[in-house]
Amino acid sequence: MKDGFPAAAREALANSQLRRNLGHATSTIRAKRARVVGEVPDWEALREAGAEIKDRALRHLDVHLERLEEAVTRAGGTVHWARDGAEACAAVAEVARAHGSDEVIKVKSLASDEIGLNEALERAGIHAVETDLAELIIQLDHDSQSHILVPAIHRNRAEIAQIFHRELGVDVSDVPAELTAAARAHLRAKFLSVKVGVSGANFAVAETGHVVVVESEGNGRMCTTLPEVLVSVVGIEKVLPRWRDLEVMLQLLPRSSTGERMNPYTSVWSGVSDGDGPREFHLVLLDAGRTDVLADEVGRDALRCIRCSACLNVCPVYERTGGHAYESIYPGPIGAILTPQLRGLDNAPTLPWASSLCGACYEVCPVKIDIPSILVHLRGRVVREVGTPPTERVAMAGMARVFGSRRAYEAAQRAARLGRGPLAGAALRSWTRSRELPEPPSQTFREWWRERGA
Amino acid sequence: MRAALFITCLADTLFPQTGRATVAVLERVGVTVDFPAEQTCCGQMHANTGYGHEVMGLVRRFVRVFGDAEAVVTPSGSCAAMVREGYERMAVEAGDDALAAQIRDLAPRVFELSEFLVRHVGVEDVGASFHHRVTYHPTCHSLRLLKVGDAPLRLLRSVRGIDLVELPAAEQCCGFGGTFAVKNADTSTAMLTDKLRRILDTGADVCTAADSSCLMHIGGGLRHARAGVRVMHMAEILASEDA
């Protein structure tokens, strides 16, 4: 973390296989998204509605969360409040222990990865089995996720076949059907035997106490229905005020994330019911920095995020560096505004600069998070609250002074012609390593204008 | 029609030919051009690097210098976007409501050159001729903040003799991003390399855009690679009368 994004990116950029895998994957999913979004005539109105729903939820978050607790409890579930990751992990471990289980099966969950749940459970003697295919690949390879939705996006089929061969002892070719069959055989035994399931949630409805998981593989449906006990770890920003809000969200999410009109599996449950599904349901509501984010009037819009990853797929920075360079479970544009806020600016001070502010992310965001503006806002906060290199501060102050007066500005223009002063860029080695600097012309525009008028 | 030219510090200091061409095109279509000499820089570099609080003086200066203009025209999409899309938020964040009100009044009169010509003056053929193969890069802030749409292309298509070829993946950023280009030089360069490859693939001998900063980046890369392809601001092509 010491050198932050620029150094981590430099390393990633040198990996030609990674560049190829990412270039292929992001351009494919970009095209799919564009196609299915293009066929929705009221897409812009939907985005507007999505943003408003999330804003309404966040504006009175305390009220909605208490209503959610009430509704879940009424439906026979148990609600746990976790101030931080450690409290959430402890709650999950306690439930597993209470059922004498040393294994849990997991639905893909970013919140659980954010708080290091698997590692915490391992320390408590409980093994967490990832059941999403890509998460399984990552887990088997002792690797880390590089994409919100497609965590093994940095791997190609051939690499995955090698991982399966090495870790599962199966001989498979790189044909996708063979790879998924191998994973299926490995996981089926777990689905049928493990007593505790762990999930996150895409949405939690305050009005009715429903928890919603959308997914593609069916592993989520297995994990939320087959085990005796289900624990869902859910960030407090996932709450939606009303059941009908899902109408908007379930249109926005699949089209933005996988580029599908509808995701294959949508699991919705509320508490427990006799003879159907888990006999015990626990909802762990996770803060872990989220209320701090709410306190920032500009930055709080990041909490609208529904983790679709459309911003990653269109980001020219992400497309080249991949997710690991962001050193966070939340990479890409959304990660660059979320991670520093959740962890504290001083723990991720380079991330707000990991963007050229091209604006492609804002254009596709289904809940209209103005990511470029939040990046700029967070840059300002880092400058003021954490600090930046003295050379940069001096240069910025010097240039602000020059631009502050016509006389100083014109003098600096003359000096630049001689390769001197605050407007001469000759010292920018990191520019000139790959780009020439323009030669200062013999006459500035204003000198020409003056001459012309004379 | 009168317009005050907001030249931008970059074009004023390093690319005066762009400013001269802008004046030539505007005058050719019958616009009287003023150049308020008190103008300096809009403060975009500071603001986008996190030093916005240090350049509120530049925001006030801009409003003072250009506040009375009938129209403000600039050959830079990103500087126009800074004023039109960024200033008001800066004033609000600084708690200066009076300034914010002045900006709300001024912002709708600020135009990037191509949108001024096509949408405000209502002209697409500005009487230019340019006998070269050209590819156009639609810079991010023109595209996504100003939403200039195809205004630059309409102007370029009307140029006599031009062989305008489409740039693949044109809407991807060139990797400049102001101080991003030096703070994240490696990532910036990776983005630039892909942009250059696509420019070279078109076989164009000129890459054009409506923003000097992106062109400084692309042009700097082309010259570093000794690619034999040059960059020209759109205004220079529109000012050209080569036959």
Main β-sheet description of chain A: 6 strands, parallel
Based on secondary structure, the structural category of chain A is: alpha/beta
Assembly state: heterodimer
The percent range for helix content of chain A is: 40-55%
Radius of gyration of chain A: 25 Å
Task: Quickly give the structural class of chain B.
Answer: alpha/beta
DSSP summary, beta strand count of chain A: 10
Termini separation of chain B comes to 28 Å
CATH superfamily of the domain at 40-288 in chain A: NagB/RpiA/CoA transferase-like
How many strands, which pairing sense, and closed or not: the largest β-sheet of chain B? 4 strands, parallel
User: Strand fraction band of chain B?
Assistant: 5-15%
Number of strands of chain B: 8
Shape of chain A: globular
Give the integer mean of the pLDDT values of chain B. Answer: 97
- Helix and strand sequence of chain B: EHHEHHEHHEHEHHEHHEHEH
Characterization of the model:
The complex is a heterodimer of chains A (454) and B (243). Chain A contains 22 helices and ten strands. By secondary structure, chain A is of the alpha/beta class. Among the domains of chain A are: 249 residues, Rossmann fold, CATH 3.40.50; 64 residues, no CATH class. The radius of gyration of chain A is 25 Å and the shape is globular. Chain B is of the alpha/beta class and 243 residues long. Chain B folds into two domains: 120 residues; 107 residues, Rossmann fold (3-Layer(aba) Sandwich), CATH 3.40.50. Helices cover 53% and strands 12% of the residues of chain B. In chain B, the strands form two sheets. A four-stranded parallel sheet of chain B has the order 2-1-3-4, with helices on both faces. In chain B, strands 6-5-7-8 form a four-stranded parallel sheet, sandwiched between helices. In chain B, helix 7 packs across helix 9 and helix 11 packs across helix 12. The longest helix of chain B has 18 residues. Chain B starts with a strand and ends with a helix. At the A-B interface, helix 1, helix 15, helix 17, helix 18 and helix 19 of A face helix 1, helix 2, helix 3, helix 4 and helix 8 of B.
